[in-house]
Each structure stands twice: as C-alpha cells, then as structure tokens.
Amino acid sequence: MAGGGANLSAGRRSHFRRGAGEDLHLMRRVFVAAGCALVALFSLALYRGAVDNEFIWDDPIIFERQLPYFDSLSNVFHPPKSIPQFGVHYYRPLTVMSFQLDEWISGKFWPRNERAEARRLVYHTSVVVEHALMSALVLLAGLALARRAGLRGSPAAVAGGAAALLFAAHPIHVEVVAWMAGRADALCGIFFLGAVLAFIEAREATGMRRILLVGATAVFSLAAMLAKETGVAVLLAIALVEFLLPAAPAPETPAADRAERRRREREARKAGRPQLILTPPRWPVWIALAAVTGIYFALRRAALGTFGSPAPGSGIPFERAAFGSLGWYIRKAFWPPPQSAFVPEVPGGATALLGAAAFLLFAAAVSIVWLLRLSRSEPPVWAPEVVATGIFFAGIAPPLAIALRRISETPLAERYLYLPSAGLCLAAGLLLGRLSQRLERAGNLPALALPAAVVAALLLPSARQTVRRAEVWQNNLAFWTDAVRKAPDEGLPHLHLGIEYNDRGEKEKAIEEYRKAFERYDDAEGRSKALNNWGSALLGLGRYQEAIEKFRLALREVARYPTPHYNWGIAAEGLARAARDPAERRRLLAEARLHYQKALEINPRYTKAHVQYGALLAQLGDFAGSRRHLKRAIQLAPASRSAERARRMLERLDKIEAERRSAGPRRPPSAKPLNR
After folding, report:
1. pLDDT of residue 328
2. Is the peptide bond before 668 cis (omega within 30 degrees of 0)?
3. Do 333 and 172 touch, CB atoms closer than 8 A?
4. How far apart are CA 646 and CA 477, in angstroms?
5. Cα separation of 314 and 508, whole Å?
6. pLDDT at position 494
7. Rounded CA gap, 180 and 85, in Å?
8. In sequence order, what are the beta bridge partners of 343?
9. Which residues, 6 or more positions from 212, have their beta carbon under 8 angstroms from its beta carbon?
10. Contact 312, 402 (CB under 8 A)
C-alpha cells in the first residue's frame, strides 16, 4: 500500500508539473503577443504622419503609367514589354500585386470623386503597416536568437524588445516607410526574416511541425525573391544560421546537469575522430530551397529573358566599390545624419578602410565559429551575435553589387539598409540581453534598469530624427529641395525639382532647373531627359518653336527616345492651330503625324501617343484609323487616364458619325478636333 501511495503521489506531481509547464508556456505566448502588438503600435505611432504624404518621385509613374499594364495575373508574372519607365532589371511580382491590392481597396471603399485622396491614404498606409509587421518580426527573431544564446526571462525580453524598438525607430528606414514605392524593401524584409525564423525553428522541430516549418522556410524564401531581387540573399543568411548558430539549451535541464552533459560530450569527442555531421532536418530544407530558387530564376528568365541582371560596369575600381560602399552602409547604420535620397558617388579613403576592416573582422569571427563547430568543440557564447551580424552582411551583399554594376541611378541608397539594419539591431539587442543577464546574476542592480536606460538613450534621438526626416518626404517640393541642397552638382535632383515646379505651374522656375540638370548630367540619357522636360515646359508656355528645338536636341542625345517625338507632335499641332496659311497648316499636321508614328514605332505600347495620334487622325477625317488607335490605347491600359480619354473620344466619334448619317450626303463632316 505504501509503495502504491508513493507512486500515486509521484504521478500527481508529474501531472502538476506538466500543467504548470503548459500554463507557463501559454503565459509566455501571451507576453510575446503583447510585445509584438506594442512594438507594432510604437512603429505605427512613429509614422502616423506618413499616411498623408503626397506621391513623390516615381510614385505617379507607378500607378498611372505602369500598373494599368498589369491587368491580369499572367502580366504580373510575365510583364508586357515596353512598359513606360519600367526597370529592365527588376522582377517583383509580389510587389506589383501589393500595388494592385491597394488600387482595389481605394476603388472599392471610396467614391470615385475621392479616389485621389483614397490612393494617398491606402498606398502609404500599406507601407507603414508593413514596417510595423517587420518590427514585430525583429522582436520574434531577437527572442529566437536569445534562446540560442542561453538567455531566458528578463534578459531574453531585453534582447528581443531592444532589437525591435531600435529597428522600428531607426532613421535610416524613413526612405522605405514614408515613400509609397519603398514597399519592395519592406515586403522583402518581412519574407526574408520570416524564412530565417522558420529555419531556426525547423532545425530543432520534430514530426509534422518540422515539415510545416521546412515548407514555410521555402515559401517565405521564394516570396522574398519575388518581392525584390535582394531576396536571393536569404540563402546566404540561412547558410550562416545552419553552420554557426548553436541549438537552444533544453529549458527543463538543470544547469549542473547541462554542465555534466557538456563534459561527457567533450570527452567523447576527444576519444573519437572529429567530423561534421548534418542532422536529418537540414537536408530537406536545402532541397526545398534549391527547388524554390530554381522556380524563381525560371520565372525571371521567362519574364525578362535572362537569369540574372546583366548591366555594364560602374567604372569604379573594385576595391573602392566593394569596401567603400560597405563602409558607407556601416557608418549610416550607426549614424544616419546627414540623410539624403540622392548619393552620387561611392566614397573612398577612411570609409573604404572601415568597410575592409569590418569585413575582415566578420570573416575572422565566422571562421572561428565554423572551425569550432567543425572540430565538434563547444561553440563560443557569442555565436548568436555573429549570426545576427551575418544577417547584415547577407542583406548588404546585393546592394554592394549595385555599386559594382550600373543598375540604379545612384550607386548607394539609404533604403538598401532596411533589411541589413535588422541584423545589427538584433546584435545590439543580444548584447543588451547579456548585460541584463550579468546584472541579474550579480544582483547589485535591477536587471532591466541599465539596459532600459541604454535603449532610451538610443531610442529618443532616433525617434526624433525619424520624425524630422519623415517631414522631408511629405511632398515633392520639400523632398527635391532637400536633395538639391545636399547634391547641388548632380543632374537628377535638379531635373525632378524642375518637374515639381512645372506641375505647380511655375514654368520659368522649371526651365531654370532643367537647364541646371542638362549642364550637370554627364551621360546622354540624363541630358536627353533634361532637354525633353525643358521642351515640355516651353510647350506649357506656348513657345512651340523653342520647344521643338529642345526635342530635336534630346533626340540627338538619344535617338530611340519616344517621348520627345510625342511632345514634338504636340508642338507641331500647336503651331498648326496658329498657322493662317492652309498649306503651312497641312505641313505642320503632317509633321505631327510623322512624330506620333515614330513614337509608336519605338514604343508600340505608348498609350498616350495612341490617344493623341487617334485624335489627330479624326481631325484629318481618318475615322477608321482614329478608332483603331483609340481602341488600342484602351486595350493596352484599360484602367489608365489615357484609356478614359480614349473612351470619351470614341463616344464623340459615334456622335459625329451619327450626325453625318442623319444630315445626309449634302452636309459636310464635322471638322471639330477631338483633342479638347
């Protein structure tokens, strides 16, 4: 009886322990969920003003000229050719789908007369929400790395919370979060970090949970690549986790038992032959990653006709391009000011030395951890910090390629630090977590006091700088005025400041900025754009002959540039309206017709040219030709403004032809132009 009672008592104790463990696990989940919610709310509050920003830089081009071409799922994954100002090296179907979702929401829940305001709100809110989600993921990543670093309780909370708060408030992220078009980096970061998190958990999971996590790792990795090209770097980040990150210690094992187990493991390794063994859960992950990477490149090749992104060299020496850009990104990650959206060149000198030194230190740390793992020795306690820093280096690898190859208009950009900075924030959070652990063990100071003071000292000035920098992104005038002030000798800021003045009706100011842009551009494409816009401003002033001269010079710089031909046609039509001599008028209309034809020959999908040419043909009495071009514009971009204009013209054509039929053969056809 006594023995049975003892067994019953032991069974009850085991049951109570399991119940207490389940309650503790549930409580931890609640605390983690609350932490994620608080971090997300902090991020949303920080960028609350960004949801009312204007569309700046390339924003209007995206939803007015490019999105109308993506009218089906097939076009999203296989973009049509000759989309206006669409990057030939870019393949981002998930980002395009996010734009489509925003367009659907703004059209579904707002009346048509409020569409412009709805677009501003929806398109910008999406990016702010994505940043809040990314900040919450940084918290989860910080907790996952803290577990592998042996941190639990308050130290683990410090590690994850500090990393997430620093990431949410980092001023370098303003370019992504306050800019509607910056969402590609935010989406890529979400899926990138999601893949790394899923892989960390998959290494230690079993059964169905392992299978689900392996699938999540593969799916998130593919999504990161389809959001932005830099997502390919997730493979490098996962490789660093694979070979450097230690497993989390079992929470139920007492410290003395863990020490004894490590002692026995060391003795066993000394007695046997050191070798590297890959545990079973890892190979399925790599097979899945290889499969989704193959899928990505196959889709990319089908869409763009190439596996990679071939581009000419930047002309910058390799060591300066690599280490100078790396040093610049490291410096900006730690100290962003002064911030600028336009960085014209890669620095050398001390910045390049900083980049080289940082790379060598990271390579040495990786080598030490790898050699210890290879020899089956105990990994150093700072291995999780190396993995966190590895996320920075993995994320920064694609931007370094931009400095080496002429892919973007600028070799460096603050938005490229969005994902890499998460790695540095995670490393900083781990260091603060270890500080908290030491204080907790010493008992001389509350474990949260000093780390909280450090986080506050970093967070307050960061948040202030973030809010101030976000004000620059509120509208085009503030943005490009800031860019011109910080890069006065570069053509692109002057060009876009001129565009803003032109849109505001300040034509003379616009012409002055276009002139400065033309003088400062050192490439034919830039000079051609400046001349074309210069001529466009002259068009607005009715100075058609001067405008035509600018279009002629623009085409001399870049012969196959359709926009100057289109604008030349408009200028010729303007001169024709003012011509008193019928022969001169016919000549000018023929000249306009010729340039519309040339614009469409260069870009057959130029919807605005189809509409303008259709209007001219109707004016010349060629109703059949006019209908053909107007219908083509609607077919190419049915949701665009050009398509709306084409529909109105077709309705007027129907009325004109109805008038002709009712008037009989004696009444001459209406010669009123449609282009009004």
Report:
1. 95
2. no
3. yes
4. 32
5. 35
6. 95
7. 17
8. 412
9. none
10. no
CA 467 and chain centroid, separation: 20
- In 3D, which of 399, 387, 386 has the Cα closest to residue 327? 399
Contact 137, 197 (CB under 8 A): yes
Cα-Cα-Cα-Cα torsion 59, 61, 64, 67, nearest 10 degrees, comes to: -90
Q: Where are the alpha helices (H) located in 487-606, listed in sequence order?
A: 491-503, 507-520, 524-540, 544-557, 562-578, 582-602
Per the CB < 8 A criterion, the answer to whether 564 and 606 are in contact is: no
Return the bridge partners of 313, or none: 405
Containing 283, the helix (H) or strand (E) segment is: helix 282-304
Directed axis angle between helix 383-404 and helix 115-148, to 10°?
Answer: 140
Distances (CA, A) of 316 to 161, 406, 408: 40, 10, 14
Residue 9 has pLDDT above 70, yes or no: no
> Alpha-carbon distance 44 to 463, whole Å?
12
Convert the pLDDT of each residue in 219-256 to its tens digit. Answer: 999 999 999 999 999 999 999 999 888 877 655 444 45
Distance between CA 99 and CA 105 in Å, rounded?
Answer: 10
- Amino acid (1-letter code) at residue 413: A
Residue 64: burial class (beta carbons within 10 Å; 0-12, 13-18, 19+): middle
Tokens (6 digits) for 524: 């034919």
**Closest by CA position to 166, among listed 465, 469, 435:** 465
Query: 405 - beta bridge partners?
Result: 313
The rounded distance, in Å, linking the Cα atoms of 535 and 544 is 8
| DSSP 8-state code for residue 280 | T
| Residue 165 near residue 456, CB atoms below 8 Å | no
Nearest 10 degrees: Cα torsion 37, 40, 46, 50: -130
Q: What is the distance of C-alpha 642 from the center of its chain?
A: 28
Label residue 198 exposed, middle or buried (CB < 10 Å: 0-12, 13-18, 19+).
buried
CB 104 within 8 A of CB 164: no
Phi, psi of 407 (to 5 degrees): -105, -45
Q: How many CA atoms lie within 13 A of 227 on its CB side?
A: 26
Closest CA to 571 of 553, 589, 597, 555: 589
Question: How far from 184 is each of 96, 190, 209, 415, 667, CA to CA, in Å?
Answer: 9, 10, 30, 10, 59
Is residue 279's pLDDT more than 50? no
The DSSP secondary-structure symbol of 274 reads: -
Indicate the burial class of 334 (C-beta count within 10 angstroms; 0-12, 13-18, 19 or more). exposed
Query: Any idea which residue has 């979702």 for tokens?
Result: 101
* Contact yes or no for 377/443 (Cβ under 8 A): no
Question: Rounded to whole angstroms, what are the CA distances from 243 to 40, 288, 293, 393, 554?
Answer: 32, 18, 20, 16, 55
